[in-house]
Amino acid sequence: MKALYFDKHGQLDVVKYGDVPDPEPGPGEVLIRVHACALNFLDIWVRRGWPGLNLEMPHWCGADVAGEIAALGENVSGWQVGQRVVVDPGVNLVEDEFTRNGEDSVSPDYHILGEHRRGGAAEYLAISAGNLAAIPDHIDYPEAAAPLLVGLTAWRMLLRRAGLRAGESVLVVGAGGGVNSIAIQIARLAGATVYVVASNAEKAERARQLGADVVLDRSRVDWTKEIFKLTARRGVDVVVDNVGKATITKSMQAVARGGRIVIVGNTSGPQAEIDIRYIFGKQISIIGSTMGSHQDFHDLLDLLWSGKIMPVLHGIMPLREGVDAYRLMEEGKHFGKIVLAP
Questions:
Q1: What confidence score (pLDDT) does residue 267 get?
Q2: Which of 15, 89, 227, 336 fits as disulfide partner to 63, beta carbons 3.0 to 4.6 Å?
Q3: What class has domain 151-288?
Q4: Best CA proximity match to 184, nearest among 316, 311, 333
Q5: Would you call the peptide bond into 311 cis, given omega within 30 degrees of 0 as the criterion?
Q6: Homologous superfamily of domain range 2-146+311-341
Q7: What is the pLDDT of residues 153-162, one digit of tens each?
């Protein structure tokens, strides 16, 4: 089969489009014919690699998969060949104290499709039948694939980890990424006042269309000062900061006393210098979050299939043009998700 793969870690020039071994479904697994696979910034980090990441090469990424069942492995029931499905990108390898408490993604044996195991940026994928959910007839494949990982991440991040409540205020730092575009919608649906920092006027307008109450164009204003003015120097209850190094100090300035900063990523770099006095002086909670449980995934799908949360697509590109798609994402020239179609 064809895949968008790499056989060594590195920059974009290591990515190739070509033939790789066909996957075979094992017991309890199904073979999916992939119709859509959305990109995530996680793909870039995996391709670049980090100490301790040991992958079977060649490797291909792709956590967000929608397609149809092409074959059933042994001992699979309740599914049929030809059925339209999406894949929960969280893979639990064992049952432990965390999974028993519904904290699947906290488990040390929780893996993400496309990260520690080969993903969906290919023509076929073999995956456990327990990770499948059916796609309703009114949803097409790209719409189904686009919000999966980012939606699951945003759902847990805001509601389960940050404990967002109706009447609170949320600041989303950055508007164009997949997690943030869904976070705007979830925060709005939860009854919060939503502030967004955007990098330019075009992304600011898109954030407004998603339901943001106030959008600050950082190319024109100092957003921390503006947040103070808009909140009578109080700050916001929750800050979503997935940028990291470049913005964490401003986020600590913008959050209210006793507020929460929730982090699921670090697009500007993983290591940042923090003035600890902000943390104890303002009694700030800095909260990490990653992915979510299988129940979180199904709760998210209920909102997506009912239209209460809308997938945000930048565009659809053929799998063979995946290198160009990754370049577009790395340069930050997108709003919403880029979807590859084998």
A1: 72
A2: 89
A3: alpha beta
A4: 311
A5: no
A6: Medium-chain alcohol dehydrogenases, catalytic domain (3.90.180.10)
A7: 999 999 999 9
